[in-house]
Amino acid sequence: MLFHLFNTLRERVPGANVFRYVSTRVGLATLTSLLITFLVAPWFIRRARERQLGEVIRDDGPASHASKQGTPTMGGALIILALLFSTLMMADIANRYVLLALIATVGTGVVGFADDYLKLTRKNSRGLSPRGKLLGQFLVALVVALALYYQPRFSTEIAVPFIKTFHFDLGPFYVPFAMLVIVCTSNAVNLTDGLDGLAIGPVMIAAGTYAVIAYVTGHLKLAEYLQIPYVAGVGELSVFCAGVVAAGLGFLWYNAYPAQMFMGDVGSLSLGAALGVVAVMTKNEILLIIVGGVFVMEALSVIFQVVSYKFRRKRVFLMAPIHHHYELKGWKEPQIIVRFWILSFICAVVGLSTLKLR
Question: How far is CA 315 from CA 42, 302, 309, 331, in A?
Answer without folding.
Answer: 42, 10, 5, 19
